[in-house]
Design a protein that fits this description.
Radius of gyration: 23 Å
Strand content: 25-35%
Structural class: alpha+beta
CATH topology of the largest domain: Alpha-Beta Plaits
Mean pLDDT: 86
Order of helices and strands: EHHEEHEEEHEHEEEHHEEHEEHEHEE
CATH superfamily of the largest domain: Nucleotide cyclase, GGDEF domain
Number of strands: 17
CATH architecture of the largest domain: 2-Layer Sandwich
Number of domains: 2
Distance between the termini: 50 Å
Largest sheet: 8 strands, mixed
Number of helices: 10
Helix content: 25-40%
Shape: elongated
């Protein structure tokens, strides 16, 4: 059995709107369900901020412990850095005997798993840290050759007479942020226009408070649009997105959110290969995105022709801004601005 949860869901609910929270949970449910089904598991419940699944029954009883651990690891990796730059998902995996079948009668029937192992796995989740899966001893015995260096964590569980020697498996996403790895990404660079003037007018304390509100709002929007924060050097924001349309939609929302704070924002977007370097990204694609953004005025989103071609059919409109030379880039690039619908 695998139980996966979002330990920070309660805190997130305090700062996100109900709609944003539902979007976050739906994204989690979708990723977790795909991971479970792909490894012949059965989703038992989508319950609040948890996804509960079991493996080995009603079909495919081969290496069910390993498949459960791998499914949990897939979910942790897929959700890493989706919101706010930290791991989001924690998991617990248990192996043992349980009743699996229909419980209840009539309209209340539920196909589920019941037993001490199930209870222990649920309680174990409360001790798991974001980015790791805690394994009960029987599970680790079955998968130890795959995770030979998993450290022991002694945990007291209510229905066990003695503390449990759980094993902690840490998971990192195999993303572009890994050193030396190249991957295709959509890069978004956001800048605040005339921020120095605003900071001078407000004073240090008020500017720091406004900047904190700005970044708090940006991180909420990254959650909604499936972006990954890479850097916030100065008063800018560097982020990557799985799809260029998400980056553009984020840019539109970011411009409006900053306008409500009295800030003026410009955005540049480009899609290309990047190389990871200890959580940062580098490469000519990052330079291109930054140079494109620097060409925009406040309230504008400029994109490369690569982005425009990739979002064909999305409903986005563009205006040709001509072929422009970009500092540090060998060849001129065709640039477009995003046409925004009038309010």
């Amino acid at each position: 059995m695998a139980v996966m949860g979002l330990p920070g869901a309660g805190e997130a609910a305090q700062r996100l709107s109900p709609t944003q929270m539902v979007e976050r949970l739906n994204h989690f449910y979708e990723i977790a369900t795909r991971a479970v089904v792909a490894r012949d598991g059965t989703v038992d419940k989508l319950m609040s901020d948890q996804v509960i699944a079991f493996f080995g029954t009603p079909y495919n009883d081969r290496e069910h412990a390993l498949r459960a651990v791998e499914a949990a690891a897939d979910v942790i990796a897929a959700m890493e850095d989706q919101w706010g730059g930290t791991s989001l998902v924690a998991a617990a995996v248990g192996t043992g005997e349980a009743f699996v079948g229909n419980v209840g009668e009539g309209g209340t029937r539920d196909y589920t798993a019941i037993g001490q192992m199930v209870n222990s796995t649920h309680e174990l989740l409360g001790h798991a840290r974001p980015g790791e899966a805690l394994l009960l001893p029987a599970t680790y015995t079955a998968v130890s050759s795959h995770y030979p260096d998993a450290p022991i964590r002694t945990i007291t569980i209510a229905d066990r007479d003695e503390p449990v020697a759980a094993r902690a498996v840490s998971v990192r996403a195999p993303a572009a942020a890994r050193a030396g790895r190249r991957a295709l990404a959509t890069i978004m660079v956001l800048d605040l226009v005339n921020s120095t003037v605003i900071a001078s007018e407000l004073g240090d304390a008020a500017w720091r408070e406004l900047l904190a509100r700005h970044y708090g709002r940006m991180r909420e929007l990254l959650a909604v649009h499936e972006g990954t924060e890479i850097d916030t050097a100065g008063d800018g924001l560097l982020a990557t997105f799985q799809a260029p349309v998400h980056a553009v939609r984020f840019g539109e929302a970011a411009i409006d959110a900053d306008a409500a704070l009295g800030l003026r924002t410009r955005v540049g977007v480009h899609t290309g290969e990047v190389e990871g370097d200890q959580g940062a990204i580098r490469g000519i694609a990052v330079v291109i995105a930054a140079r494109i953004g620097a060409l925009a005025d406040a309230g504008q989103i400029f994109v490369s022709n690569t982005v425009r071609d990739l979002v064909t059919g999305s409903g986005l409109g563009f205006e040709d801004r001509g072929v422009r030379s970009l500092k540090g880039v060998a060849e001129p690039r065709q640039i477009y601005s995003v046409l925004r619908s009038p309010d």
